[in-house]
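Form 12-C: Joint structure prediction
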Amino acid sequence: MAKEVTSRAENFSLWYNNLVLKAGLAENSAVRGCMVIKPYGYSLWENMQSALDKMFKDTGHVNAYFPLFIPKSFLAKEAEHVEGFAKECAVVTHYRLRNTADGKSLEVDPEARLEEELIVRPTSETIIWNTYKNWIQSYRDLPLLCNQWANVVRWEMRTRLFLRTAEFLWQEGHTAHATRKEAVEEAVKMLGVYEDFARNWLAIPVITGVKTASERFAGAVDTYCIEAMMQDGKALQAGTSHFLGQNFARAFDVKFASKDGVLDYVWATSWGVSTRLIGALIMAHSDDNGLVLPPKVAPLQVVIIPIFKGEEELQQMRAHCETIKSSLQKSGISVKIDDRDNLRSGFKFAEYELQGVPVRLAIGPRDIKNGTVEVARRDTLTKEIVSQENIEQHVSSLLADIQSNMYNKALKFREEHTYTVDSYDEFKEKIENGGFFLAHWDGTAETEALIKEETKATVRCIPIGGDRETGKCMLTGKPSSQRVVFARNY
Amino acid sequence: MAKEVTSRAENFSLWYNNLVLKAGLAENSAVRGCMVIKPYGYSLWENMQSALDKMFKDTGHVNAYFPLFIPKSFLAKEAEHVEGFAKECAVVTHYRLRNTADGKSLEVDPEARLEEELIVRPTSETIIWNTYKNWIQSYRDLPLLCNQWANVVRWEMRTRLFLRTAEFLWQEGHTAHATRKEAVEEAVKMLGVYEDFARNWLAIPVITGVKTASERFAGAVDTYCIEAMMQDGKALQAGTSHFLGQNFARAFDVKFASKDGVLDYVWATSWGVSTRLIGALIMAHSDDNGLVLPPKVAPLQVVIIPIFKGEEELQQMRAHCETIKSSLQKSGISVKIDDRDNLRSGFKFAEYELQGVPVRLAIGPRDIKNGTVEVARRDTLTKEIVSQENIEQHVSSLLADIQSNMYNKALKFREEHTYTVDSYDEFKEKIENGGFFLAHWDGTAETEALIKEETKATVRCIPIGGDRETGKCMLTGKPSSQRVVFARNY
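Section 2 - Result
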């Protein structure tokens, strides 16, 4: 099966699409731009959700659910927000269909026109802040720390599975605070949660930083982000956390009384990650044989494949495999046995490689005699023969090793493709091969736009806690207060 | 706070609405018919979801995600389905807004009209069977056992929080099988899962049965259901499981090759429960003081309230409460301490009663001296003084006792309000006070409609495994093969 996957070198974009389809993660649906997330892909999302959800709850957040629809007038209330979002969205104008005159099909009932059109939420700041208005009166009601797991719709013209789809699944946190300081701290704290999650669960190193004004979320004062490097050297924005100032509180008139009885607008943040992370996961780690999944989010961590000829040998194998399976399960490892008798082992090996199952155990008649197991790891594609004794300890530590090896490999890749440049000519030449570029920039939107026009690269972020070395903009020579990260991006 | 809740006897419907709002479960939003599920209500839903999701996975199902939108033409493909669903739904006709000429607000961009309108899913059979067409070729691809957790929209004219809202959250299982027998077995099995869940988690006894033709799901061959009795004697349909025959496979041309290479249409089921279950939970158990929640789904199982005067006493209490808290948490009990110093204990007691927290522990200075705790249980509103030693064992067994007591109480209530009637006059008289009526019916839609018109009662279901005693229809005197359940319903 893996043979049908285009190689990364040949065509990275086609390789990605091949993998998503052939590994059974997702597919395009009959509705333009909307995907079907298949069981294997959804299971990956569930694992990601469950880890994130716990992290949100451990930091004091609660889940809630707000309406799918947003009245059109709400979008117009926050001026910058509407500019950023209102253009491409799904608009509900009617609430009823009727049979056509010939009775053979359906048409929109013109009598059932909504007084005010409803927008399918592209993000929920407006409907949520309209709700918070009733929840917040005093400083005692703050902070308000809600998260929502939901589907959202943005009518994208060019879509790609997971990376950019009209409908996608995400979480959006929306918090309300009594002070600017507390809201900024919250936005930074949640960026930290995302960085932690990317590092420890997805095995993806990310740069944390602040967006420039031109890349900022519509309605935000500051947009913090995590940026990951894909294997083609492009950047992928993997999560954002916004300090919204008092913008939405002003737009929806949400005030609170302080301890001293003074009325002031509430301070806000919002933050989100989406099914786009699945795209990041694939492009950061996978290879020409298929997916390579970090054990901590893999839907299946271990597959056991008995090598047998005929029913009798299979029977003998089965009890043996079951014993290993339950010893692994006792250690909390997800495992299945594939004893299908209509497929060759080689075919199965290729299939699990394609699906990125971290560890494969193969057991043949000779292994039973010798008390051994063949253990193959997906990340390095290496094999070893180990004793069946303490197999669960061996596999447990192997899974931990794969997890950290994948992170280190991705980190090494990023370091090897991160360049400090001072010459614009050098930048223009090197950017063709991808990578992150630490360069000085004069801080103006004009320079940023010019560089984008000439190189297709943008400022991915102004790194947090990075080197504060001052310098001169590589293009204009004007002063710069610190190096920023330039890259082409998804 | 509880004083503001209308009593059940006074106005059951208002009592329900009061509770939902005052206990902080949900509220109406700015979008007509759509609710906001508040954190406390959503936490209840999360607990229900997690129990159900495990039950689905334990019975071999996997989760997936299908598009929110359904092309209009899909709805017309299954003739009965469209009759049942197409009328009231949210129709997306455009994909872009633009600024109005004065630049002050937004309007639909007439240039951005969709070629084919999209319907926000009222249920997903059509889009899913259009997808299954590509997933199923041979008997080896069957059974296909998918579930989806999603939001759906039905443009209801009269809405009530949780019970009937335009948008609601639910799960919808959609399975595909090689034989009729297997599909019927699946539909019945999932009905069993729902019954089990209602009984063991929600503490609600339900009658399992089959719907009459007039109450059947649009497109189903048979609709199985669970019906619960509310405290006003009305029935609430709490979950349905449909045997869809080959109807959707025919409509979307989904065929499979059998082992012998014969092509045939695939057999289908679908089944779902929704946030409506929260409404059932409230109306089955709660009282005039507020919610009464079964411990197994309660967002919070135990609250500890220190009774103190001044900061010094509070400090003394705090360590003590923390010790009890951690011993309870070690037993897997969810617990919080409420040591807010700006509220009287009496106020707190009423608040947790309103929220239906199953167990309340109150600890005063005298308790510390005596090594005792005051334990109050929400279901019976009784209190006892117990020793602090082995408090976690006491509370654990108390929670189990509350869970079973709530079930037994609801079962007793149902039994006391279930009547076997043979006279239509007696039926007409008694139905005014609510209850379930086991009566003979001639099996015709005409008689059913007439009874509904005259009494507002419908056949809730033809019970499965019930008494097979034959008899004569209470209205027409025509033969009946078994008693059915009549009731007024939500």
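Section 3 - Comments
Chain B is about 35% helix and 30% strand. Chain B has a mean pLDDT of 95.
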